[in-house]
Amino acid sequence: MPEQRYHHGDLRRTLLEAARSSIEADGVEALSLRQLARDAGVSHAAPGRHFRDKQALLDALAEDGFHRLTAALSEVIEGEVSTADEVRRRFDALAGGYVAFALAQPTLLTLMFGLKHAPDARAELIVAGHSSMELTMRVVDAAQQIGAIGPGDPQRIALTAFAAFHGVATLASGGRLDGVPAEELVEVASEIFWRGLQPTKS
């Protein structure tokens, strides 16, 4: 019997972690449940207890990715904010955190949003996909509450911010920033975006 190399009997988690590494190295098409089983030291049928087929694994991988993204971004907005400087730092941290996540695993990010917007997307995946956007909306709402930025629909503002920084991450991961470091462009984009949200002075 082959040695079981997954930790604490959590084969599902082991398969997800291995799948995440696999798609970043070799792409989604090359992902194989049989190969993951061999790498984990279990029978080829064992993954079927958790994922009925490759698509089920990809769906779970995307949902897990959104949960991991939300957890990473949640860390930078913990606690209360009471000043414009504090909420601005949180906005910058959200932008930087999102781009860092995207650059660390670009194939996963593409998979996450591709499956989330698929016509037959699972309800659980859609809910997970909305959670990081809700964090951004909370930062926008907090900024509006203390008068750090002007009025407006928090959802639209958050979506626009997401589009801007997702664009930075996409260009950076494709090596299309003409040599400009991604971190530098995030700072510039954040500054420009925040400036545009400032309350109109009468």
**Rg value:** 20 Å
The CATH superfamily label of the largest domain reads Tetracycline Repressor, domain 2
Largest sheet: none
Estimated structural class: mainly alpha
Second rung of CATH, namely the architecture of the largest domain:
Orthogonal Bundle
What proportion of the residues is helical, as a percent range?
Answer: 55-70%
Task: Please supply descriptive tags for the structure shown above.
2 domains; mainly alpha; 8 helices; 202 residues; Tetracycline Repressor, domain 2; Arc Repressor Mutant, subunit A
Detailed description of the structure:
The chain is mainly alpha-helical and 202 residues long. The protein folds into two domains: 1-51, Arc Repressor Mutant, subunit A; 53-196, Tetracycline Repressor, domain 2 (Orthogonal Bundle). 67% of the residues lie in helices and 0% in strands. It contains eight helices and no strands. Helix 4 (84-104) runs antiparallel to helix 6, helix 4 crosses helix 7 (154-173) and helix 7 (154-173) packs antiparallel against helix 8 (182-196). The protein is elongated. It starts with 10 loop residues before the first helix and ends in a 6-residue tail after the last helix. The mean pLDDT is 90.
